[in-house]
Amino acid sequence: MSRRPPPARQVREHTTPYSVAAAVPVPPGDRAHVLRAGRLAGVLERTARGFRFSYDGDYLRDMGLPPVSLTLPRRAEPYDSPHLFACFAAVLAEGALAAEQCRRLRLDERDAFGRLRATAGGDVIGTLHVVPAP
């Protein structure tokens, strides 16, 4: 009796849902307000090259306010990244909860920015909230 060789494994290209490669097309004006402890701290944008976070001028002028994250120290120049910044990705649900949110809200699971805008404005852990910009 001869043994059959194991089936060939299919290799899929790995992309993280937080990278530009997995992002959905960028609609114009795809922006969100970032609130820290209920105060406007800055604007998060999805760009053709990834993501951009810019601190709000009023937030920067108040020297008593902390940065939104230790990885994003306060500064006037915007931060650019090909990936969603870790402090914002940490607010997103994972696993079965993420799948359920996407199903109920009819969101693309690969669209981390869209998920962030739709789910991180209400009851979230921590002081960061992300809401769609008007």
Tags for this model:
5 strands, 21% helix, alpha+beta
Written overview of the protein:
It is a single chain. By secondary structure, the chain is of the alpha+beta class. The chain has one domain (about 20-130). Helix content is about 20%, strand content about 20%. The protein is built from 4 helices and 5 strands. The protein has a 5-stranded antiparallel beta sheet with strand order 4-3-2-1-5. The radius of gyration is 18 Å and the shape is elongated. The protein starts with about 30 loop residues before the first strand and ends with a strand.
SSE ordering: EEEHEHHHE
Biggest sheet record: 5 strands, antiparallel
What spatial form do the alpha-carbon principal axes imply?
Answer: elongated
Within the largest sheet, what's the order of strands?
A: 4-3-2-1-5
| Helicity level | 10-25%
How many structural units, i.e. domains? 1
Q: Mean of residue pLDDT?
A: 79
Q: Segments where pLDDT lies below 50 for 5+ residues?
A: 8-23
Distance between the termini: 69 Å
Q: What is the subunit organization of this protein?
A: single chain
Q: Work out the strand percent.
A: 15-25%
Q: Look at the helices and sheets and give the structural class.
A: alpha+beta
Number of strands: 5
Query: What is the count of helical runs?
Result: 4
**Cα gyration radius (Å):** 18 Å
Outline the secondary-structure elements.
Layout: E1 31-36, E2 39-47, E3 50-55, H1 57-61, E4 79-81, H2 86-89, H3 95-105, H4 112-119, E5 128-132
Antiparallel strand pairs: 1-2, 1-5, 2-3, 3-4
What is the structure about, briefly put?
The chain is of the alpha+beta class.
